[in-house]
Amino acid sequence: MIANPELRALRSDDSPQCDAQVAMIRTMDNWRARPEIASLLGELEEFSAGAELERCPRLAALFTPGEAAAREMAAGFSAMTCSALSAWPLGHVALRHFTDGVTSTVLIARAVNVTLSLVAIDGDGLGFRPESATASFGPNQTWEHVLGGSAGVELIECKPTGPRTARLSRRKMDIGQGTVQFRDGKRDARLLHRIDGALVSLRLQRRRPNAEATREYDLASGALLHQAAGNPRDSRLELMIAMLGRMERKDAAPLIAELACGEASAALRWQALRECLALDTQIGFTALAAIAARADDPLSGPAGALRAQLLEAHPQLQEVEPCPV
Amino acid sequence: MNLPKIDLSSLPDLDTLTGLFGSLLHTSRIIESDDSIVQLMAFVYETTVH
Question: What is the reported pTM?
Answer without folding.
Answer: 0.82
